[in-house]
Request: fold
Amino acid sequence: MGTTRHSLTNSVSHAAIGQLQRLGVDTVFGIPGVHNQGLYDALIDSPDIRSIVSRHEQGAAFMADGYARASGRVGVCFVITGPGLTNAATALGEAYADSVPLLCVVTCYREPLVGRTRRLHDLKNQSQLLSGLVKETFRVATPQDIGSALEAALQKAVAGRPGPVAVEIPLEFLDIEAEPETALASAVLGATSTSGARRTQTAYQEPPESAEALQMLEAGKLPVVIVGGGATRAAGQVIDFVDRLQALVVSTAAGKGIVPHRHPLNLGAWLKATEVQKLIARADPLIMLGTEWSPTDLGEHPVSLPANTIRLNTDTDIPPISGVTIRAEVGPTLAAWTLKLAQRKPYTDQMNVANLRATTLREPRRWPTEVPGYLEAMHNILAQDAIIVNDMNTLSYAAVERYPSNAPGTFFFPRGYGTLGYALPAAIGARSACPDQQVVAICGDGGFLFSSEELATAARYGMNLPIVIWNNHSFGAIRATRSAAYGRSVDDDLLNPDFVRLAEAYGCHGVRVTDPAGFSVELSAALVRSGPTLIEIDAPL
Ligand SMILES: Cc1ncc(C[n+]2csc(CCOP(=O)(O)OP(=O)(O)O)c2C)c(N)n1
Reply:
């Protein structure tokens, strides 16, 4: 233990990085500091792990989020104790709310001074702070625990309802020599886990409630499926199931694209639509797949569930409902049901599905009349599997309901926690995970400035990334809701920088467009440009 700091290649930090590599981690996002530089030093000796350095820890954690949503694997970020963690906190909150598997590796002091903060980067109580942000924190008690802590954390991130986890490593351990057992323990654990970073496939076991669910499916007259983000990796099984039953489908924002928009039974992603609410009320049965039935999807008018509801979810914490709740993986369970329902006569053949779909899609919307033209231009240009990473803004709200997503896991929206500043860094994460897919960020002028410094990251790594800014010179959504609620508005006007020049100052390409035709030209050009392009839309107020 305790030898020359700079010559050590078998440090606890090396054991940590080696273990992450064995567990399938290929990218880490973060910011180095004196309080975690042992980890960064060890990365030099593990060229298979790519390090992407952000300009703010919130950006690093959002990048890990975007990486996770795009790849289906755990996103990993490295932050220093104290301010590194508090900067990342909001993004961890978003990942928790949206069930995104993240691992935050954060340093700490070996002896926490709970209640005092005299040491550099020390917090009053870091572990307590973490407990309010993540599913579970693994505090490394001895240097020998490093391998098992990382493995346990990665497994926890994907177990049940996915979410963020943290590993707190005392910074006193980072640069000391790892005991032989440390490496051994890591190797053994690594070998037994094919990839802790991915949800492991276990043999399908019929859930005990399956029989009841199948009875409801056999007897029902109008099956309606609500598909949520928890079914993203089970798209094939969901579509087979829907086809077998000829069930109508509605999706949440997170579930967009799981059943392609072009599928004739898909009514879109608008649970609030009047026709959809009516349909849900008379569904028989209603089948909820991988959705928590979140208030953020339902808005102000929660729809009550019919008695005949089947709920399939890995989450163990979801509240009870009438009907039957099954805690199991969506994919294998649906595959088994589809086989068992082989003789079912399709239900909806008498319904005029096309009419219902048209009525649902025609419902009047509140956004400016220019919005659909821009979304249509995007849809005409982007590939079917293009990843659209949204912030909270007018264009994105409209896109939830209107953008025709045709591939699963391609529409990201920070719906659960509703954090402004998500889109740019999360798009950088998605771009790192999926270099062969198109990735586009959509921001408002307000939200963009919450994380615009990450233009530097996109430029530094030469990322081909169009960043669209809907510039209505205001916190438009807030202006609209406040005007509606109070009949007047204040502090919603924004004095923005010149976005085109801002982009150029960062080494990105910048353009301003004034109509969908110009937008089409610039978006097409941005998709083939090697670096990032900021496209400012001169939007109506
Ligand atoms: C971190 C954070 N702070 C505040 C809010 C509240 N908020 C929600 S939408 C919004 C306005 C966003 O403005 P902009 O990005 O310009 O989009 P627009 O509504 O104008 O289209 C604000 C301030 C939030 N969602 N997140």
Summary: The first strand starts at residue 27 and ends at 30. Residues 188-200 have pLDDT under 50 and may be disordered. The CA atoms of residues 388 and 440 lie 5 Å apart. The pocket of thiamine diphosphate is lined by residues 392-394, 418-420, 444-447, 470, 472, 474-478 (CB under 6 Å).
